[in-house]
Amino acid sequence: MSTTEESRESVLHKFFRKLMEELLNKFSSEAIEMDLSLQEHYIIEILGRNEKMTISNLADKVSAPLTTISSTLDRLYEQNYVERERSQEDRRVVEVSLSEKGQGCFDVHQEETEELIDQFLSQLSEDDKKEMQRILSSFEWEDQAGDE
Q1: Given CB 3.0 to 4.6 Å as the disulfide criterion, which of 69, 98, 133, 146 pairs with 49?
Q2: Contact predicate 46/53, CB 8 Å
Q3: DSSP per residue, 96-121
Q4: Cα-Cα-Cα-Cα dihedral of 40, 42, 43, 44, to 10°?
């Protein structure tokens, strides 16, 4: 690898590490402000991107055991962040979704995350932003409800 390639790779790594660090710091401070654990805050984020989810689908999405997700949802339910409802198709299945309070939390998080990303992107020219968008659109991203 040439020095130029190493330098370019180093810059990319630095950019993504810094962006991830800033997002994680933001995520953590939001969770602390709302008296939520990081996992509770993350579940609100996932539910905000999906209208309703079964508990098992949510457990798969966050790669956590069903028992862990169930107890986390119990805490979120007690704090009025989520609602539970029996599935109309299969009464044995419980679906969870955000309550009004949970949706408000999600909306604030989305807005603040977009502002943070915009701060990073504001350092780029319009041509560079278009080029970055072109490059990133070539990746195969996991399709997640609510993503644009």
Answers
A1: 146
A2: yes
A3: EEE-HHHHHHHHHHHHHHHHHHHHHH
A4: 90
Q: What is the tens place of the pLDDT at every residue in 11-66?
A: 878 888 888 888 888 878 877 787 888 899 999 999 999 989 999 999 999 999 99
Asked if 15 and 94 count as a contact pair (C-beta separation under 8 A), the reply is: no
SS (H, E, C) 51-79: CCEEHHHHHHHHCCCHHHHHHHHHHHHHC
Q: Check the CA dihedral 13-15-16-17 and report its sign.
A: positive
> In the structure encoding, which two tokens stand for residue 71, read together?
């107890």
Rounded Cα gap, residues 69 and 23, in angstroms: 23
Sign of torsion over alpha carbons 139, 126, 21, 17: positive
Domains of the chain plus CATH, in order, are 3-130 (1.10.10.10)
Q: Are strands 94-98 and 53-54 parallel, antiparallel or unpaired?
A: antiparallel
Indicate if the pLDDT at residue 146 is higher than 70: no
Query: What CA–CA distance (Å, rounded) separates 18 from 12?
Result: 10
Query: Mapping DSSP to helix (H, G, I), strand (E, B) and coil, where does residue 125 land?
Result: coil
